[in-house]
Write a structure and sequence with these properties.
Blueprint: H1 9-18, H2 20-27, H3 34-48, H4 56-63, H5 65-87, H6 97-103, H7 107-127, H8 132-141, H9 145-167
Helix pairs in contact: 3-4, 3-5, 8-9
Length: 168
């Protein structure tokens, strides 16, 4: 039995697009992921300072079922990716050798770079009112002007970063 290592990007795109329908029908919200990090952070902070629930920004992320649903979706994506990689028998090194070549970074340095980059990405996602999933898939599907601006900016930023990395 031959196992495909990856889905067709066209099939995956159609499935993700169709997931918008039950998301709106069941929870009344589009797909997104960055809000789940705020929810988890608020709950962790609440363990240290229970008064965090009194701050309006955090309160909505701690009481809305929509944000709980998003958090469960993020966890499920990780679990699904793990199961998919095992079923397809695709294995790759956790530390890409290109980073060693490009930066000379050790694994510990690479983990630090990943953490800082992830923090900046998440900060930008919250500042922009949503992540690439929220804007790129859900917002574009709704023809939201703000999402169109964000997606164009993401592509331009990606092209600029690729140009800089190519010159290094």
């Amino acid at each position: 039995m031959v196992k495909d290592k990856a889905w067709s990007p066209y099939a995956a795109g159609i499935v993700i697009g169709l997931l918008q329908i039950p998301a709106f029908l069941i929870i009344g919200s589009a797909l997104g992921a960055s809000s789940s990090y705020v929810s988890v952070s608020a709950y962790i902070a609440g363990l240290i300072d229970p008064a965090i629930k009194e701050i309006g920004y955090f309160e909505k992320y701690m009481t809305s079922l929509g944000y709980l649903w998003q958090t469960s979706m993020v966890v499920s994506v990780g679990i699904g990716a793990f199961i998919s990689s095992r079923l397809s028998a695709s294995r790759r090194p956790s530390y890409s050798p290109i980073w060693k070549t490009a930066t000379g970074a050790t694994l510990v340095q690479r983990l630090g770079m990943a953490f800082i980059g992830g923090f900046i990405l998440l900060f930008g996602a919250r500042w922009a009112g949503g992540c690439t999933l929220g804007h790129g898939i859900s917002g574009m599907g709704q023809l939201a002007v703000s999402s169109m601006v964000v997606v164009v900016s993401m592509f331009l930023g990606g092209m600029a970063a690729a140009n800089i990395m190519r010159r290094l």
